[in-house]
Design goal:
2 copies of one chain form a homodimer. The first copy, chain A, is of the alpha/beta class and 488 residues long. Chain A contains 15 helices and 17 strands. In chain A, the strands form 4 sheets. Chain A has an 8-stranded mixed sheet with strand order 6-13-12-11-10-7-8-9, sandwiched between helices. In chain A, helix 6 (124-136) packs across helix 12 (345-356). The longest helix of chain A is centred in the last third of the chain and has 31 residues, at 457-487. The radius of gyration of chain A is 30 Å and the shape is globular. Chains A and B meet through helix 1, helix 3, helix 4, helix 5 and strand 4 of A and helix 1, helix 3, helix 4, helix 5 and strand 4 of B.
């Protein structure tokens, strides 16, 4: 029997009130004798109990249960109220969001979920080598790093942003974050109060609406067409910020033309508002060159640019970056420090090395080819299975397309999702990306956001086949139901 | 001349208003001829300009500058107001915090900064092996993970917490966060509104006070003695949460006895408040066993436990964990998802493997021995250099101690820090850890928080020597100054 066991045993007895009346414990000598252990062992246990305040020791006397423990035990209330936890306003907002679920892993044969990548595209040997090299370059001491992130990575990104996106910025305007999501969160916290409004695309990236709404601010959902956010509708809007995806609108795929870009920037300037430009997948354009970002235009002083490697390397690495106006760089750095000090160091260094060597850009070119092929395969498969019963939107870029089912009214969406689940194909409706407070703003046909970047060509074809079966069944069921009431 | 150059050139001309009157561009054939390039090259450039909305193309006609661009250019306002950026209330709070600085790297010979670790203590070979193994086990697809973190790591932690800290919890009560700081941030956001109060130790971990204050809530700073937070003073306090370090008060080092623990938990129950138990360095006790956490006690339903590997492995990995009450596990998971989706995956898996194999716990024992030796060296060096002119507090545990200079009044603190800097030894005053709003609450002598876990024994001795020189100079200067006025 060791000191720890003795300690646990006596603590248990104290808490159960065994010593309640007298409160005296056996002397260490007596207890050692009784248990057949050395006196040192008992003394160690007693010292621990003493340190934790369970017992008191007075010179020459036997140890006794601490007075406070005894009286506490007597007053122990038996009433176990089950009070609902009071949360902050933010907490109450968070509580309304359905919990994360893994989309029934293993139950699906093919999943067209957007945002996933094929792990076979990841440059694993190269990444391992760079990570190993990083780990070997051990610094003298391990300490908290610059909240803005590794300087080496920020320098590498500065060059990359100029080469790939014509963005010119200072290294200290770049803040490394844990994926775009943290970038959005920092923007929301620093720029929005509960009394403010923010402009958001409709439909939009749902997590952006959630995080901005979390501040208590009210969304102004602005419709999107094939040229992105309709900036004509901004004139009268007094908002603190606008969240946009001008290079490739998510999810509909439009590119915002220069006229709207100017209109947006002018609006931001007039309102002293910020524009958050989420450039989440501009690496993937299959028709034209990547479209230059808002950030490079004149009067873009209010633009906060957001980039990520989640679509080019892996979403599991959790690395993104903000380019903030010079006047905001300190406040963003401190906000990042308060949020989590800084992002993990090793992956940042490995990514810096990847970019410096040019291997990142050749990797991007390589996966762009792969995804171009996947896209073509999906387009062909969809045309083959559905002919002109579908309309495809936003397939010129990115890693997903929107497929509208012309003959499926929105009311059949639940039936289609259920039918697809039965075929074990994962499909994801676009309707949940529209502002739920504006039901009139969404088309009244079923639309799916179909991602393809995680799938090999065979599975894309198989999945489209399964989806066609699912759609067929929904159509038959619907036809049967339409006829039934007439027969009664 | 490639398509990109042509595109850039024409875009520049459009933006400078070169085409303003007519708005017509040369035909692709004419331009190709003029530039001596293929027509395909010019067409590619024009397609890009078209996609971005700079130009319009009408069947059969020459391309022209888009109408909107022309009118936009005319209206371009010349006024460049320099408006101070409006931030949220949180943003204004963040703006008051001094920006991060690296403590003059390279300029110091020895730095006693608390929180740093020696990189020679890090199990680099083992970690590299585990990271490589993790990277090789590639999943089928790379997708967003459970916001609570890797299930494997949470299972490993569940066992570890039971073995090392007698904490029994469900795997889903554990939320992996980016170091303790993110854990504190999530607690602050979910539990505090601007109208609330929170209890905090005085002195305390400064970043905790900052993050809780960031919500707009008001701190109730409760004095700390050698038994931690003085819970007698809580009775009348109506706060939403209390932040405590009961196993090892930061920075003073007291262990909270069981009576105060009960008092704290009873208070929390009565007020329906939460207790955040920051168990940041309980692995390091040199006298007794690690003290059992609040979390294991009866009536600890309101306790949120916070652990980290920043003091055992490395602060650069950014891994910590919360153990939250079952009623809060969903809301914490969603809050983590909104904050940054989840923590990076590879390191979590490597840490899980480290814990499963038992190597984590033997690593902890190993570095505990190293730090015990460092601590003893620092104690001896301090005694040797300063004798009874100092008082040492909180040296029984953790990775730092507090050294009070009995003959140095607080007014000499700036002089001491300056003098130390001149000796190139980094020392860090305790006064900044006291609530600045309660100047009466802090002792009126100079106190330093001296961390030793990043230093080898030789440097500990050298640093103490340099510090002694710095103190000596301050004493002499002070004595000279005291005498001078009399001579005048």
């Amino acid at each position: 029997m060791g000191a720890l066991q003795i300690y646990e045993e006596i603590k248990g007895q104290i808490l159960r009130g065994v010593f309640e009346t007298a409160g005296q414990l056996p002397s260490s000598r007596a207890l050692a004798h009784e248990l057949g252990v050395s006196r040192t062992t008992v003394t160690a246990a007693y010292e621990q109990l003493l340190a934790e305040g369970f017992i008191e020791v007075h010179q020459g006397a036997r140890p006794r249960v601490a007075h406070s423990v005894v009286s506490e035990a007597r007053h122990k209330s038996a009433s176990k109220r089950s009070v609902r936890t009071r949360l902050s306003a933010y907490g109450e907002h968070v509580r309304t969001i359905p919990p994360w679920s893994d989309n029934e892993p293993g139950k699906l044969v093919v999943d067209f979920r957007h945002g996933d990548l094929a792990s076979s595209d990841f440059p694993i040997m190269l990444w391992k080598r760079l990570m190993n090299r990083t780990l070997e370059q051990r610094p003298e001491r391990l300490s908290y790093d610059d909240p803005r992130g590794s300087r080496r990575l920020r320098m590498a990104l500065q060059g990359y942003l100029w080469r790939a996106r014509t963005i010119r910025c200072d290294v200290d305007q770049i803040i490394i974050v844990n994926g775009s999501q943290q970038g959005l969160d920092l923007c929301a916290r620093l720029l929005l109060d509960a009394t403010d409004k923010f402009v958001i695309e409709n439909p939009c990236y749902a997590m952006a609406r959630q995080i901005f709404s979390g501040t208590g601010a009210s969304p102004v959902s602005v419709p999107v067409d094939d040229a992105g956010l309709n900036t004509d509708l901004l004139a009268e809007v007094d908002a603190r910020l606008a969240y946009v995806t001008p290079s490739h609108q998510f999810p509909l795929g439009g590119v915002m033309p220069i006229s709207r870009r100017h209109q947006l920037l002018q609006w931001a300037k007039r309102r002293n508002a910020h524009v958050i430009e989420d450039d989440y997948d501009s690496e993937y354009r299959y028709d034209i060159n990547p479209v230059a970002p808002l950030h490079g235009l004149e009067d873009s002083d209010n633009v906060i640019y957001l980039g990520t490697i989640s679509k080019t390397l892996s979403p599991t690495l959790r690395i993104g970056y903000l380019v903030v106006p010079p006047g905001l760089q300190d406040v963003f750095a401190t906000a990042k420090e308060l949020a989590d000090r800084h992002s993990p160091v090793a992956e940042q260094e490995a990514l810096a090395a990847l970019i410096e060597s040019g291997a990142y850009e050749s990797h991007v070119r390589r996966v762009r080819r792969f995804n171009h092929e996947r896209r073509q395969t999906l387009l062909n498969a969809l045309r083959h299975r559905f002919g002109d019963k579908i309309e495809i939107e936003g397939a010129d870029a990115g890693l997903h397309m929107v497929v509208w089912f012309k003959n499926l009214p929105l009311s059949l969406e639940p039936a289609l999702l259920e039918s697809a689940r039965r075929e074990r194909v994962g499909v994801h409706s676009i309707s949940r990306l529209y502002d739920p407070a504006l039901p009139g703003g969404r088309p009244d046909q079923v639309g799916l956001v179909m991602g393809y970047s995680a799938l090999d060509l065979r599975w894309i074809e198989r999945g489209t086949h399964l989806l066609a079966d699912a759609v067929k069944r929904v159509r038959i069921d619907a036809a049967v139901k339409t006829r039934q009431p007439k027969q009664r």
